[in-house]
Amino acid sequence: MMPNPVDVLIRRVDPEVPLPAYAHPGDAGADLVTCEAAELAPGERAVLPTGVSIALPDGYAAFVHPRSGLAARCGVALVNAPGTVDAGYRGEIKVIVVNLDPRESVRFDRFDRIAQLVVQQVEKVRFHEVAELPGSARAEGGFGSTGGHSVVDGSTGGNRYASAVSDREGQ
Ligand SMILES: O=c1ccn([C@H]2C[C@H](O)[C@@H](COP(=O)(O)OP(=O)(O)OP(=O)(O)O)O2)c(=O)[nH]1
Ligand SMILES: [Mg+2]
């Protein structure tokens, strides 16, 4: 059974804009459109208006995620992915797109779907400063400390952090 949806107030900044919609019942993201047509040259970015603003309940945030089809077909990414829409934000939601294709321009028409909005509950934490943190199995290992793909020349390359960690472990 599907859980009850969370009610979110939405306002059309552009009176003609289609509201964000889930393409399928189980989808996590509701598609956002651009209200402005745009053409991006290779490497170019733009801040595109979605024509909507929302009022999220306290304890929620909305995240602007890329669409994988646009990424795979055209090399379109979001510069700040995922963009964070705070519960208190009442401005128009915008999408910061970049064309990462090295050769082809990409064109968006008005009301093309360019991103998707994922609404989630978020925890608020209180930070308690301490001199020492409790130990853990991972400790300070990160940035590839468990192995993984190698860089082109097969060494740790310019990853000074990984080298520093393995140096310490070798002592
Ligand atoms: O992709 C995005 C990311 C953010 N926002 C809006 C909603 C968010 O609440 C506000 C601020 O975003 P963020 O905190 O990421 O940006 P900032 O550079 O820290 O700005 P501020 O100083 O206003 O917090 O901008 C968008 O419309 N689209
Ligand atoms: Mg901020």
TrEMBL record:
Keywords: Hydrolase. It comes from the Bacteria. It is an enzyme of class 3 (hydrolase). The keyword Hydrolase applies. Its EC number is 3.6.1.23. This is dUTP diphosphatase. It comes from Streptomyces achmelvichensis. The gene is dut.
